[in-house]
Amino acid sequence: MSAGHLVIESLTVKFPVQGKGTLTAVDDVSLALAPGEILGLVGESGCGKSTLARAVVGLERPAQGRILLDGDDLTQLKGSRRRQLRRRVQLVFQDPESSLSPRLTIGQTLQEPLQIMGMSDRVARAARAAELLEMVGLPSHFASRSPGALSGGQRQRVGIARALASEPDVLVCDEPVSALDVSVRAQIMNVLLDLRADLGVGCLFIAHDLGLVHQACDRIAVMYLGSIVEIGPSDALYRAPEHPYSTALLSAVPVADPDLERSRSRVILTGEVASPIDLPSGCRFRTRCPIGQQRCADDAPSLRPAGAGSAACHFPGQMRVELAQQTATG
Ligand SMILES: Nc1ncnc2c1ncn2[C@@H]1O[C@H](COP(=O)(O)OP(=O)(O)OP(=O)(O)O)[C@@H](O)[C@H]1O
Ligand SMILES: [Mg+2]
User: Fold this and answer.
1) DSSP states along 142-173
2) Which DSSP helix (H) or strand (E) runs through 32?
3) Domain locations in the chain?
4) Which residues contact 305 (CB under 8 A, 6 or more apart)?
5) Residue 95: band (very low, low, confident or very high) from pLDDT cuts 50, 70, 90
6) 239-297 pLDDT tens trace
7) Closest listed residue to residue 93, CA positions, set 33, 155, 30, 48
8) Quick one: which ligand is closest to 226's CA?
9) pTM across the whole model
10) For atom 8 of ligand 1, which residue has the closest CA?
11) What is the CB < 6 Å shell around ligand 1?
């Protein structure tokens, strides 16, 4: 039985930049997704989340590294075996508006991948399309509608249904809810949680909304300038971030309790984000780090066990402790 164990090993993706050399969008990233696990990936714009996602589904060719699905390296496979295995890791796009063809009905959109997979019987395809709609909580009569007649949340459900057509083990969701209203985000998240419960589908879930990621994901990975700076169980990372960058990200998340909100200190990051074309020596966060020291310029920290997870910092937890002291002294 296949299980859907996805291992990303030392993945590096580079882009040539005219006249400027090479941009390293993803730099030596290693991540593992257990079967059925929902792993959140967060980090600010341009840190390489989409590039990582695209590399995982085969849309970007890595300069280095392996992507293993149940032990098979997806980057090395050829021909029909490649197609067969690639189907088991599917991308869900951010913007269902532009990823669904307005010329096709929802049913046609869902039947397209089925046809490509060799399901030639029209009746069987229609039945399967209806089933896919049901899996994402939409009535089967939506098959006859055009994307324009659907709400944003409904369109994203169709986007997920389309990704499910090939019976994947893993969905790579690149900000699937960012374009949606806050009220709809949790509903889509619940669809993913249901799919995990019913089908065992795992998910690499890319998002900006840390509150949502915290509630729905088993673990969270924090990315900065192409590399993972912290990874750990959602609750632990949310409550007690080890890396100063995670601490800063979390300090910007609004808290529902107004008293708590008033008493919290925000970390305001100053300094420039280093360029992915010309990465600094040592720690790449040091140009903005409030607790950086000489050692951080001399010596790049690697991911090491810290708290309940791992962090790439010479002084794990220190920023959080300083912030708590600031809050306590007002
Ligand atoms: N095809 C490309 N050619 C050159 N540079 C690229 C290309 N795609 C991405 N980049 C660069 O790679 C880096 C990572 O981009 P990426 O889109 O992966 O970031 P992201 O984390 O998904 O950002 P966002 O949150 O805005 O979606 C950025 O510096 C970006 O400019
Ligand atoms: Mg992106």
Assistant:
1) GGGS-GGGS-HHHHHHHHHHHHHTT--SEEEE
2) strand 21-33
3) 239-330
4) none
5) confident
6) 999 999 999 999 888 777 777 676 677 888 888 889 999 999 999 999 999 999 999 99
7) 155
8) 1
9) 0.94
10) 51
11) 15, 23, 25, 43, 45-51, 276
